[in-house]
Design goal:
Elements: E1 7-10, H1 14-19, H2 36-42, E2 52-57, E3 65-67, H3 70-73, E4 80-83, E5 89-90, E6 99-100, H4 102-112, E7 129-134, H5 135-143, E8 153-156, E9 158-161, H6 165-182, E10 185-189, E11 206-211, E12 229-232, H7 236-255, H8 264-267, H9 270-279, H10 306-314, E13 322-325, E14 340-348, E15 351-352, E16 355-356, E17 359-366, E18 374-382, E19 395-401, E20 407-411, E21 418-426, E22 430-437, E23 453-465, H11 476-492
Parallel strand pairs: 2-7, 2-8, 3-6, 4-7, 8-10, 10-11, 11-12
Antiparallel strand pairs: 1-9, 4-5, 13-17, 14-23, 15-16, 17-22, 18-21, 18-23, 19-20, 19-22
Helix pairs in contact: 4-7, 7-10, 9-10, 10-11
């Protein structure tokens, strides 16, 4: 059965891969646009070790060119499994399943390329196994039939060109069903211009834009905030594997216990990985969002910074301070949560007289004794569209001044399954970060509640803003980005600020 009629389309010609091959790859050469060098300096073993990944590739050349040549990436050929358009499988290279794709080679270099004499290092060179799929087979048979695979992280540097929005919605539904069922994180390019294409437009995955390169912009055809994040490259084919590599590193760290004993299973959840990746994003000049549009239409949550995301993961899982029912508001007392960390929790709305009551989970922060003059809060909330559901539960994110009970900021989109707060110039004080699940009637009755309970991931960081110095006044646009990235390091690892 064929599920879609769209064509799997590559997002950049090989000439772009050739001309811009050095744009991001100099991780060990003084250039660190996505935080890889800082992370490697902190812990050289953070390479995606032990993680199984997948790379789905549209046909690039001839009738069967989708394969990665292991020698182009520095990876051992024994690490690859190739799956062709008819489901045929090969474990050696070259093989009869397909042929080499220069596009696939360069995506692989950026994703998991290993250092050798001629090839640069990718973000996650330590991955243990790579499943290289022909994209049409992968979309229609693996995703469409919800066939389980070994990989938890899937890179997709292609788009599905469709004839109408209804077909795009069908593809999104397929991917969301699969992601919700198998806890798989799909990391997909959004396109190199015009609309945001599927599968990068799916609710439960991460749609990647290209910072400084050719890129589609949001919102989606139905008004949702996409892309989710951006990375610096010439086109989205090549920014996407940078994010996929970062996801592999976070999954490695989660599974080996970097997030704290007893929280490995929670930290490795796809919703947590997504929240951490987005929350680590560095806001570039011009980044903006609104209460009802949580992400910037060009940059999403910002520019990928895997060092920020890892430090956010390493800060540990921290549970709620308390819960309330009814209208959202602040609480004055409860357990205090550290200034940086994350949580994977559930929130339930009770059904009373045929309608669900709104419920809120609260996270209290005490910054009254801080020596920094002010703080910047970055907090990201993610949850899934459920398998088989068209709609989503409505979760919102609020920040209150816990002393006065006044609201400071809100992210309350009713159509997105991500909310983000980015609040600057916060004075030392007591704050209440609130996740609210909206009430209402069942969606099956035309209401807004898909299910009574919802699991969510929340990442948060109250970063102290140091006193300004004269050096920060030079090149304000670029330096501002660097400062945001490095504030995290001061709190999480003490590695200093510029």
């Amino acid at each position: 059965m064929r599920y879609i009629d769209g064509v799997m389309k590559l997002l950049a010609p090989l000439v772009a891969a050739t001309l811009f091959a050095g744009a991001v790859e100099g991780f060990g050469q003084g250039s660190d646009p996505i935080g890889v060098s800082a992370l490697r300096a902190y812990d050289p073993t953070l390479t995606g070790s032990g993680v199984v990944v997948a790379q789905a590739e549209a046909i690039y050349s001839g009738s069967d060119g989708f394969e990665v040549n292991p020698s182009a990436t520095g990876q051992s050929g024994s690490n690859f499994v190739y799956i062709g358009e008819n489901g045929s499988v090969a474990t050696g290279y070259p093989n009869s399943v397909g042929s080499e794709s220069g596009h696939a080679d360069h995506v692989g270099e950026l994703f998991y390329g290993d250092v050798n004499t001629s090839d640069p290092e990718g973000v996650a060179p330590g991955v243990s196994e790579i499943y290289n799929y022909e994209a049409d087979y992968f979309v229609n048979t693996i995703v469409g039939n919800e066939t389980a695979i070994s990989a938890r992280i899937v890179n997709q540097s292609f788009v599905a060109t469709t004839g109408d929005n209804a077909e795009q919605a069908q593809i999104e539904q397929m991917y969301d069903n699969y992601a919700a069922r198998y806890n798989t994180l799909f990391i997909s390019a959004v396109g190199n211009g015009g609309q945001v294409y599927a599968p990068g437009s799916a609710y439960n995955g991460i749609g990647v834009a290209a910072y400084g390169g050719a890129s589609s912009t949001g919102p989606t055809y139905d008004g949702r905030s996409k892309p989710d994040i951006t990375a610096p490259e010439a086109a989205t084919s090549f920014s996407t594997p940078l994010v996929a590599g970062a996801a592999a590193i976070l999954l490695q760290a989660a599974e080996r216990g970097d997030a704290g004993t007893g929280t490995e299973s929670n930290a490795s959840d796809a919703r947590v990985l997504k929240a951490l990746l987005l929350n680590g994003g560095v806001k570039p000049p011009g980044w903006t969002h609104t209460d009802t549009a949580p992400l910037d239409p060009n940059y999403g949550a910002g520019i990928l910074n895997v060092d920020n995301s890892y430090m956010n993961l390493r800060a540990g899982e921290h549970g709620i301070s308390g819960a309330t029912s009814g209208s959202v508001g602040s609480i004055a007392s409860g357990s205090i949560v550290p200034d940086e960390g994350w949580d994977f929790a559930s929130i339930s709305t009770a059904k009373v007289s045929g309608s669900y009551t709104a419920e809120s989970n609260h996270y209290l922060f005490d910054l009254t004794g801080a020596t920094a003059p002010e703080f910047t809060l970055t907090s990201t909330l993610t949850w899934d569209r459920h398998n088989g559901q068209t709609d989503i539960n409505n979760l919102d994110l609020y920040l209150f001044d816990a002393t006065t009970g006044t609201d400071v900021a809100v992210s309350d989109s009713t159509i997105d399954n991500v909310q983000e707060l980015y609040v600057q110039d916060l004075a030392p004080g007591n704050y209440d970060l609130v996740v609210m699940k909206a009430g209402g009637t069942s969606v099956n009755s035309g209401g807004t509640v898909v299910s009574g309970a919802e699991s969510y991931a929340l990442a948060f960081n109250f970063a102290p803003v140091p006193e300004p110095s004269a050096g920060w006044l030079v090149g304000p646009g670029v330096v501002a980005m660097m400062l945001v990235a490095n504030r995290r390091k001061l709190r999480a690892g003490g590695r200093g600020v510029i």
